[in-house]
Amino acid sequence: MNSALIFGLLIALMLTGMPISIALGLTVLSFLFVMTQVPIEAVALKLFTGIESFEIMAIPFFILAGNFLTHGGVARRMIAFATAMVGHWYGGLGLAAVMACALFAAISGSSPATVVAIGSILLPAMVQAGYPKRFGAGVIATSGALGILIPPSIVMVLYAVATGGSVAIDPEGKRVLSASVAQLFMAGVVPGLMLATLLGLTTFYRAYKGNYPRMQKATWLEAFTAFRKSVWGLLLIVIVLGGIYAGLFTPTEAAAVSAVYAFVVAVFVYRDLGWSDIPKVLLSSANMSAMILYIITNAVLFSFLMTSEQIPQSITAWATSSGIGQVEFLLFVNILLLLAGNVMEPSSIVLITAPILFPVAVGLGVNPIHLGILMTVNMEVGMCHPPVGLNLYVASGIARMGITELTIAVWPWLLTMLIFLGVVTYVPELSLWLPRVLGMM
């Protein structure tokens, strides 16, 4: 009954058009005032202690690094390198878009930032070269979603924060801790590269079928020159992932290093960002960070309410006693998250559902790392379909296309992503192989 009241009130508030963060906070306060004996002082304590996690500090740093690189011309050089490598194949500029999105995703951690950085340059170029606008917009909108799967990923950080400190009991009665940010980052490498390949194959097939333009093959000198010019941006991938794996710094420290490195590259190396542009970048990063941290704070309160009412534990007990297995549970998770993607943005979905799903998944034998990657892929799909697909709105602004037309345009790539989601769901080794090989499990 309590569960029904809590979620019913939350859904009712969201249907009024209220922001998710405020709806979460009002749901918690209303329930605590009326239905429980929990002292209201606990709310103030949770508001401050809920965001005292060291891992949360990675979020503003990754946002800042992504903004420096977006405004600093790094994306343009990565596009030139990607075009030199694959531009001579069928749909060369489309394949270059997929490759450039994958490369930029590995330094930004944000899906909308990837769409803006790559799409604003490549989409007009594709239209000018003779590609249908729908084709270009479909490639950019879906490939940009790689920004939250290929590490570093802000969504993975949010999953680690939402489940951090939680301990669940596996089917053998052992205590299982949540996945760390470092484990999730490494787990996202193989699925990220696999999805980028599948999106590239879809792009190639449609370009081959439609006989879309091909570019002249770049010489070895041109390819090397393009690589040399983009190497400063590509080095950030090595710094972040290499530094974490080598134990030189934690993911949060890696985020801080990446922000400083991105500043130096944009201002002193490439010199595409003037000193007068820096306040604008800092303000934009602060606004986005504040928005996410506000959602996190209210989601922590919601998680506190869930825990105090023993709702995750009740769901776990019901799932294990009713004979539900991993196959059925993972299918339910996918359906739940895909439906949630229709009305909510990724950070809210992860922060609300992860603390509830984590103990149930572990109780059924699902690895926390696998669950994290599964949720991240679901968030990717959610960003590419209406009515709240953020990538669609960003790509719509760049392409000057209506949401309905863009929704039709992304279907071939969206179908590829749904098939990939099914593979990731039921082949956990895709997510677990690399962390296991690196000795992180």
Poorly predicted runs: none
Q: Give the class from helix and strand content and strand pairing.
A: mainly alpha
Q: Sheet with the most strands?
A: 2 strands, antiparallel
Helix content: over 70%
Total E-strand runs: 2
Separation of termini? 39 Å
Strand order of the largest sheet: 1-2
Average predicted local confidence, pLDDT: 84
Radius of gyration: 22 Å
Q: What form results from the Cα inertia axes?
A: globular
Order of helices and strands: HHHHHHHHHEEHHHHHHHHHHHH
Number of domains: 1
What fraction of residues sit in β-strands?
A: under 5%
Supply the number of helical segments. Answer: 21
Which terms would index this structure?
about 450 residues, mainly alpha, two-stranded antiparallel sheet, globular
Could you characterize what this model shows?
The protein is an all-alpha fold. The chain has one domain. The chain contains 21 helices and two strands. It has helices at residues 2-15, 20-34, 41-49, 58-71, 74-86, 92-108, 111-129, 133-143, 154-163, 181-187, 189-210, 220-245, 251-269, 278-308, 311-321, 326-340, 346-363, 368-382, 390-399, 403-426, 429-437, and strands at residues 167-169, 175-177. The protein has a two-stranded antiparallel sheet. Strand 1 and strand 2 form a beta hairpin. Helix 6 runs antiparallel to helix 7 and helix 8 (133-143) runs antiparallel to helix 19. The longest helix is centred in the middle third of the chain and has 31 residues, at 278-308. The protein is globular, with a radius of gyration of 22 Å. The two termini are 39 Å apart. The model has no long low-confidence stretch (mean pLDDT 84).
